[in-house]
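I had to read the description of the data format several times before I understood it. The format is easy to grasp once an entry is in front of the reader. For illustration, here is how one protein appears when written out as sequence plus structure tokens:
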Amino acid sequence: MKTIKNFYPQRFLTLVFMMLTSVCTIAADGDDFKGKLTDNLDMKFRVLSEEKKTCAAFGGSYTACVPKTIESLTVPSEAAGYTVTALGPHAFYSCRDLHTIVLPETITEIYKGAFYGCFELANITIPSGLVTIEEEAFRSCRALTEIELPASVTSIGKMAFDGCWDLISFSTEAPIDNIPQECFSDCKSLTTVTLPSTLTGIGSKAFNSCTSLKEIQLPENIVNIDGGAFSGCTSLEKINFPQQLKSIGGSAFKNCSSLKYFVIPENVEEIGGDYLENSGVETVMVNSPIVHGNWFSYNSNLRQVTLGDGVAQIERNAFNGCSSLESINLPEGITVIEEYTFWNCTSLKSIEFPTSLKIISKSAFRGSSLESAIMPEGLEEIGNQAFYGCVGLQEISVPSTASNIDDQAFQNCPLIMKATI
């Protein structure tokens, strides 16, 4: 049996279930009945299957199955001849004083919002055969500090642990394939996360505003990191990027101000807008074949970019407005520097062109701080205003193979003192 730990014996008011004495005539699935816990306390149940003789602890719409002032509770494994296999929707909703609860091994499902708003819930036993945790099941359980889920779990719903402010550790080897939307959003104390190898996706805002999370190890089968997945993780310093990764959603690492280094694996095909907005990323390694136009534009923190040997194309605007960019390599195989690629890269003073380069397009280096531009043999074209406004440019070398040089290619470059054409 897995246990969520944080026990305070002085607050533990023991309620032992007595033999249920209610006489109930239950004829159909969905019928409700009451089981007497003590002389003064009943618990509501609902028949799940008359054939299988199963039931759930069940309240009403946002109504708990027990009084909301209860502080401790042990859920029985059987009620009136029915096996208790589930906690129904909002079963303990807003039981704000509930501190400790013990669940029987018969429980396999925890339905939507079962413990939503149990602000003081600090101790709960998780059955070893639990299969399903539905959305918002533990939402705003602010006193929980540790969650370890058994390997039997196959499904976790969105916002399942959203707003668990004191949650420090989460671990599971359960064969789930996705951390759903906002699952751990606003878990401000979360520092340790252990994820199963079966995981293929991180949902939208899954770890949003986990402000204490410094490091996370993503399993190698991760394919998608959805929008806002780690947004607002202001302490995040280290994250690995699995080789299978194909997409990174918009704002995925927005406001990750402590994240300095970022790797884009070779299989990445899509990255959403603003994925690094207001992040602290200064150094990037790119291994994907194409650097797309919205990946780095206007990233004012970016200082160094290393492009892997497999990079064959850099799209227009790729580094437009990267005002702090000081260093970037262009691998052999690059044939075109597209329009506006390095426009307004005001810290870029030098660059080495690959021998494979054929075309420098319109405004490619406009407004940059290049001091020299030694272009390779085989270059064929320099586009309109390619180096316009490079006011620090002092030396250029244009090969004889460049038969198409626009009249304004080097316009407003007042310091050119040496030109070889």
Remarks:
- The first strand starts at residue 2 and ends at 4.
- The chain has no helices and 35 strands.
- The two ends are 78 Å apart (CA to CA).
- Residues 7-27 have pLDDT under 50 and may be disordered.
